[in-house]
Request: fold
Amino acid sequence: MRRHLMILEFALSCLCRRKYKNLALLFAFSLLVFILSSILLLTYALKKEAIEILQGAPEITVQRTVAGRHELIPVEYINKIKTIPGVGKVEPRYWGYYYDPFIGANYTLLGANRDMLRKIEILEGKSFFSEQKGVCIVGKGVAKAYFAEVGDRITIIGADGISYTFKIAGIFKTASDILTNDLIILSNDDIKRLFQIPTGFATDIVVEVYNPEEIETVAEKIKKLFPSTRPITREEILRTYESLFDWRSGMILTMFIAAVVAFVILAWDKATGLSAEERREIGILKAIGWESSDIMELKFWEGFVLSSLSFFTGLIGGYMHVFFFGAPLLSTALKGWSVVFPTLKLTPYVSAYQILVLLFLTVVPYMASTIVPSWKAAMTEPDQVMRG
Amino acid sequence: MKYKVFIGIFIVELLLLIGILLFSYISINTRIDEMKYLRQLCQGLTATDLAIWTEARYTRHPSQTDIFSAFQDCPSCLEHFPAGSVLSPPPHFRRPLEAVK
Amino acid sequence: MTVVLENVTKVYNPGQPNEVWAVKGISLRINKNEAVVLKGPSGSGKTSLLSLIGCMSRPTSGRILISGRDVAKLPERSLTEIRRRTFGFVFQQFNLLKGITVRENIMLPLYPTGLSLTEIKARAEKVMESMRLSKRADFNVEHLSGGEQQRVAIARALINDPEIILADEPTAHLDTKLSEEFLRIIEEIKRSGKTVIIATHDPLVYDSSVVDRVIELRDGMIKETQ
Reply:
């Protein structure tokens, strides 16, 4: 044990010999781990968050397509879908987008679903939503964009060119930003009037299925009944989000691929070219009674000190960056340029898998590149050092 | 005694890391109720997507069928799914003509 | 501790175009507390012989007995062990590690031995004192003069209290005054009961009264013993 500590002691002396070079290396290494861990932690947390929340998404959303594009769906489909065994509530949804050219932001207008909304507390100040004409509930992002408070009025220009005003009856809690930030909830009648949706049609239909095992079968049956529809199952939504965040993290990782490659080149350069000076020093150590294994241990410690400190520093930094400071360095790449972006309060999910990936991308190549070449050198006979 | 300094720093960083993991563990548990609430809200709203990419209508609901067209809101930006480009287009491109007037 | 060589040969790069017969069938015996000089021009096999005696390389054929033990067949681990316990080396180029202090250079052989840092430091302090290096302890070796560097090299060779000191061309980089000082140190070492083997072609060394025996080498063979 003491022997290992002594070799560690000497490894630290060796690192101090090239203080500035090693400090620079420590900095670069930490930065790389910091960037990679920020990306991995952020996308993983977003993915987990999305998947957790969207467990509450409707089991099946039925949309009608014409020539591959979304079309309004006849409400009469509901009655037929209801007859499929295992199906619970089937309800029409009325929703759409509204682009406010003066603010330059997009909002989502959604017709309130009476039954469901009544069940939960949604509002800051006010506890339950009662459906009324001329009244709306808005998300925090919308309220901020209009500088509006509860009781103020907002104006929306309808499809008929007429301006409609709605009184803000409530604003969603900040905690629900990730779902409600850009929402404007109106009564179904108001939405229909605003968008001039013809009677007997809805934007789409949501279907409740009691048994999660049957969702797929029900979706198939709906598709058979109405071939022009596209039933979207909850499973598909979850899958979409999963691949979406993978895609997103891949996209950001691509931006930093050059940094990773540079790091690998550095490691490779170290691994293949042991300088004559280093080779001579290994020879000296062997000649004065160090074993090959001692020299490898020395090199191991040198690599370990640098990479463990960098890894910890980078990982801790990345974590704080993402979960305490809201990932300011990555947010542009993630957010896009949306005007109403939710204040993300992410649950700090961390998985062992991520830490392993990070280790394999950084520490492992670095350690290998310090140990492998000295192993080659340590195998040579010590009398090399006496000749030339 | 350089090794004592190193082991000291190493232990401090390790404790910090463990502290962070502990913090994660606690936060995940304290947010269980909040997550449950969000799930219920999601159910109540029949929401199918998160309100993260709100910059354009074709990025708002990635899981839904729609009339996707990239140049609808901003004729000058090259788009990639699922969010707008990394940099925001210049402000005068972001509003349709009638708004500029 | 006696060193016995029996018909030892050493071939570098055997079977290749650059094959070199460095040592051709040398037999000799070096007794305890003897000061022996291996003399000869460069390329005569002095250094090769020295590294064979010092267990830094293995003979191609023949036997090397150290205290009656044939070291040629020992595994690398035991060879290192013998090297560490029995021999102290003083190299021609001193072979000190740049960038670290005199003290750390001297402590170098003791790091992997399992001694505590305090003990290693105490030992280094002792050796430095005997080599008059205490004032230089915290200097980096590259800031030292040639003579001081050699004293560091000798101190490093002495720290593990070896029974045999091997020196390869120790005076090659020293002027007459420093060479004489070196011989004085050798005399002290010899007086403490250690065996000294020096490879050199410096007359100052092999004509010195310290030396008990001079073995002259030429083309890898013993030419003459005085």
Notes: Chain C touches chain B through one residue (CB under 8 Å). Helices of chain C lie at 46-53, 76-86, 102-107, 117-130, 146-158, 176-191, 203-206. Strands of chain C lie at 3-12, 20-30, 35-39, 61-66, 69-70, 87-90, 164-168, 195-200, 213-218, 221-225.
